[in-house]
Every structure is written in structure tokens, then in C-alpha cells.
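Researcher: I'd like a structural prediction for the single chain below. Treat it as a standalone chain; there are no partners to consider.
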Amino acid sequence: MRKNDETQVDRLRIVFSDSELTNVEIAEKLSCSPAYISKLKLQDDVRPRTAFLLTVSRTFNISEKWLLEGTGPMRISIDNRLKQYLESLSNSVNPNDMYIRKLLEKYISMSEEEQTLLVKMLTHLFE
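Model: Treating it as a single chain, here is the predicted structure.
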């Protein structure tokens, strides 16, 4: 099968195989049944919902574009993942999300020394 011929289910199978997790472990991470994971792995006529694919993308750090369309790299960098997360927070109406967004933006703007100091302070606070 050429790469362009891969279906979303084919790409899910790649993600699941790369994870080296059991069906039960994958199902727990994705809040679905192990039977559904098994069905995705074994049956070609399954059509997962977009919401499920997006959950897989977030859970396994997989590019949404790759998983949905088969284009671009499979994995996304942590920097791009953080950028996507910050963008999602900026669209949120939840005041807690705005606080998290401001905290992350402030952390990113800190020097490495300041980041290290903050992590030490938080570690001490939560011990």
C-alpha cells in the first residue's frame, strides 16, 4: 500500500502499534472499550468519528493533519504542541483556562535560570 492510500484506520493502527500498549491500556487512555480498539485494529470498514481521532492525536502527540488527512509528519514537536494548546486556551471562555494560558506564556518568556528557580519553588510547594 502506498502512503497516499492509507486510511485513517491505517494511521490509527500505526499509532497503536508504535505505542506498544495493549488494547486495554490504549482504551483506558482514550476512554473507550478495548473491544473498540480491537475492532479498529482488525476491521477495515470502521469509520472512527473525528472527535475520537482528535483525542488520539492529543493523547499520543500525533499531528491532527497527519491522522485526519495523511499529510505532513506523524508526530508534532513539543513546541508546536504547546503552541496549539495555547491557541486552544485563547478560544476558551473558562476563566481557569485563561489563568493557565497566562502562566504558560509567562513561563515561556522566562530565562532558563528563572524557569529552574520556579520549578524548584513549585516542587517545594507541592511536596
